[in-house]
Amino acid sequence: MRLMMICTAIAALCFTSGCLASLPVKIKSAPSDAPAKVKELAGGVTLITDDKWDVEVIQASNTFPVVVDMYADWCGPCRKLSPILEEISHENKRVKFVKINTDDSSKGKSLGVGSIPTLIVYKNGTEVKRIVGLRPKDALVSEFASL
Description:
The chain has 147 residues and is α/β, with parallel strands linked by helices. The protein is built from five helices and five strands.
């Protein structure tokens, strides 16, 4: 908590003093000939909040299967699962991976998540699979192979 307060204070100081204005910023845009529907994702796990649920999970699952990692920062098995999902997300670019912190979200409760970590897979806006608990990478790769 103390570290968060210090980081917030430093960020506020940099923002108000203008030191961030001198940092180079590159904004990448899609090429004009980019296809309307991308067939592969860049990889990586995206942290989302409740307000992004519909876009990042429900709507996105109409294009790609979406794996939602329900986790908490204090959860040991969740911390062990995180790098495994990150690896898989870079290897399997036909599945979108997102994570949502159950301590900061009401989604876990509304979806009946009783234990974490819980992975919920969505296709076409509907839950199609639920995996509860920590699993080794090869077991998860097998679970996601059929998506």
